[in-house]
Amino acid sequence: RPGGEPGGAPVPVFPTSSRGLEVDEVLQFVAAHGLPRVEIVNGTNSFLYQRSSKPVFRLYTDLFDEDNAANVATYRAGLAKVAANVPGMSFTIANVDFGEQGGLDLRVLDYTPTTVKNGGAWAIYQKGRKFRPEEDPAEGFTIEGVEAFAKRYLGDNPPAPYLQSQPVPLDETKPGVVTVVGRTFRQIVFDESKLVVILLYAPWCGHCKELMPMWDQLGRTVAESPLGKERGVVVAQIDATANELPRGYAPNGYPTVYAALPGQKPTPREYEGDRSIAAYTDFIERMLGEVRPTRD
User: Which DSSP state fits 157?
Assistant: First the structure.
């Protein structure tokens, strides 16, 4: 029964204080206690779920296809049943193009079109991380499948956070240039002992294709010089269309080059000069001059 009715749960009361109301605290309170069991999430209400202390389950489907309306009703009814058994989680449905950059959320989850059509494209979000089943749900949407995954997340054997990533390279194919993928980005680029200069490229980009031979040469030059041997400079590259990037590393068009400085990894410096070995080398030297000395 609803809170406040005889036999129902107590009505949550916002704890006020002499210092008055803080907007963000009120929003967090609403997110924790005032959201529906199942809600359609969009650009007008998603900020509440971002403030929720609960993990948020999100199913992606086409909300604007009239032929899919019956499926959406089935998903919503099914999620309501799951929510009744899993009170520690919020449940939402989002359109297939929901996300920061038009479909970004669903794209990085790597679901097949068939899985999306069958209602099997879902993920759990919490504290900036996302979790999806290791395999696409073979049967699409089922109450049993969703409930099992939700309870697994809240239990003792949760899935690992999901990152869109190409396979980890077994061997470096370019001497002097380290190939980074989603799964190795933090390990390589966020290494505090290294200054990493990384090229973000797209395979279809003509300017990127023109730059690649020069980037390979830059990598060899740095690796064979004191910059690489003594000062810990790493030249790297990543296909930014096939691998998930941390916040702060979104490409500003292609190609984009960033320098990740020790002590300043979350806020890289973007290169904006000429595309030449001399200009890139000068940029590296300038970035080394800005590295903050570490305390022993």
Answer: S
If one counts every other C-beta atom within 10 angstroms of the C-beta of residue 11, the result is 10
C-alpha distances (whole Å) from 233 to each of 45, 49, 225 are 44, 41, 10
User: What residues have CB less than 8 Å from 192, skipping those under 6 apart?
Assistant: 262, 263, 265
Cα–Cα distances in angstroms (integers) from residue 81 to residues 60, 121, 142, 177, in the given order: 18, 18, 11, 52
What are 109-151's pLDDT values in tens digits? 888 899 999 999 999 998 878 899 989 998 999 999 999 999 9
Structure-block tokens of residue 49: 């779920």
Question: How far from chain centre, in Å, is Cα 110?
Answer: 12
- The average confidence (pLDDT) of the chain is 86
Cα–Cα dist 220/217, whole Å: 5
Rg (CA), the chain: 24
27: which 2 tokens?
Answer: 């929003």
- Beta bridge pairs of residue 130: 125
The Cα–Cα gap between 242 and 203 comes to: 10
CA atoms within 13 A on the CB side of 150: 27
Angle at 91 between CA 5 and CA 26, to 5 degrees: 65
Question: Residue 209 contacts by C-beta under 8 Å, 6 or more apart in sequence?
Answer: none
Phi and psi angles of residue 211, each rounded to the nearest 5 degrees, phi first: -80, -25
CA distance 41 to 212: 42
**Whether the predicted model's global pTM rises above the 0.85 cut:** no
